[in-house]
UniProtKB/TrEMBL annotation:
Keywords: Glycosyltransferase, Manganese, Membrane, Metal-binding, Signal-anchor, Transferase, Transmembrane, Transmembrane helix. An alpha-L-fucosyl-(1->2)-beta-D-galactosyl derivative binds at H165, E235. GO terms for biological process: carbohydrate metabolic process. This is Histo-blood group ABO system transferase. It is found in: Membrane. It is a single-pass type II membrane protein. Belongs to the glycosyltransferase 6 family. UDP-N-acetyl-alpha-D-galactosamine binds at F53, A54, V55, Y58, D143, V144, D145. PANTHER family: GLYCOSYLTRANSFERASE-RELATED, HISTO-BLOOD GROUP ABO SYSTEM TRANSFERASE. InterPro entries: Glyco_trans_6 (IPR005076), Nucleotide-diphossugar_trans (IPR029044).
Length: 286
């Protein structure tokens, strides 16, 4: 395969951090050649699982999520969608491309939206052991109130990856909305922390995702027994976990954008995976 030679004396980007101090790549437009990566992952014959939860009213987000995933997510690779829902009959029928399949898995609902969101960690850890280990090489775990807007491919895959939240990336660590109460398992002191990661997109190899989701679930169970709930629920616990188990790739906010005007943020060249606006109050009431 012919491609431009990597230029050792010419950085791919000079406006942003492209590698963390623990030598994990930060994935930005301009830092990778997708053709080289596609070839590498095809040689591995990699299958990628995408987990998404659509419980109660959030089922309405599924159609756009899946349709846009068919256009932009891991195109040309084998993909298994794992749809967790309390309403299997209402999962939209989508025509899938070759090499892509869907499993619809029933989950219980909870009265509080926070419990629906937090229990995703428990469910993913159970299914990782029970099923995903046999069926896929990598897992990508996403929120459903999202749409793919541009290419999201194998450049994101690694043993353990997290995504930088678009709302805080320019801030100092003491301004990150980490859990600050020492009573919580998610506690992070003011002088610690690398990035503020989102729970809406994370993943890695199945064993690594199993370890992460199990640890976050167990930490939330300890908090529950101690009558404390972390400020941003499982996202707070994810941040604590990734502080102590450094991700091997970090996705830039291109991979989690809130569709603000890109020209106000010149370092963001592509908006790949976009948070949809929702009326939280209406969506979360029964
Ligand atoms: C943020 C995070 C989310 C999670 C949450 C916890 C973003 C983009 N996402 O989202 O990952 O950490 O904070 O506070 O900032 N769900 C249902 N049915 C429900 C409620 C939730 O299926 O009734 C699922 C669904 O997949 C949804 C996810 O749980 O995408 C997270 O819930 P959310 O989107 O309401 O949480 P939000 O927007 O505060």
């Amino acid at each position: 395969m012919a491609y431009g030679q990597p230029q050792l004396l010419k950085p791919s980007r000079n406006d942003v951090l492209v590698v963390t101090p623990w030598l994990a790549p930060v994935v930005w437009e301009g830092t990778f050649n997708i053709h080289i990566l596609n070839q590498q992952f095809r040689q591995q014959n990699a299958t990628i699982g995408l987990t998404v939860f659509a419980v109660k009213k959030y089922i309405i987000f599924l159609k756009l999520f899946l349709e846009t995933a068919e256009t932009y997510f891991m195109v040309g690779h084998r993909v298994n969608y794992y749809i967790f829902t309390d309403q299997p009959k209402h999962v939209p029928q989508i025509l899938l491309q070759k090499g892509r399949q869907m499993a619809i898995l029933r989950v219980q609902s909870y009265a509080r939206w926070q419990d629906i969101s937090m229990h995703r960690m428990e469910v993913i850890s159970i299914f990782s052991q029970r099923r995903f280990l046999r069926e896929v090489d990598y897992l990508v775990c996403a929120d459903v109130d999202m749409k793919f807007n541009d290419h999201v491919g194998v450049e994101i895959l690694s043993s353990l990856f997290g995504t930088i939240h678009p709302g805080f990336f320019w801030l100092r660590r003491d301004a990150f909305p980490y859990e600050r109460r020492p009573q919580s398992q998610a506690y992070i002191p003011q002088d610690e922390g690398d990035f503020y990661y989102m729970a809406a997109l994370f993943g890695g190899s199945v064993p690594e995702v199993y370890r992460l989701t199990k640890a976050c679930h167990e930490a939330m169970m300890i908090d529950e027994a101690g009558h404390i709930e972390a400020i941003w629920h499982e996202e707070s616990h994810l941040n604590k976990y990734l502080l102590h188990h450094k991700p091997t790739k970090v996705l830039s906010p291109e991979y989690m954008w809130n569709n603000g005007p890109l020209n106000l943020t010149p370092c963001i060249k592509r908006s790949r995976f976009v948070i949809l606006q929702k009326d939280g109050k209406t969506m979360r009431t029964n």
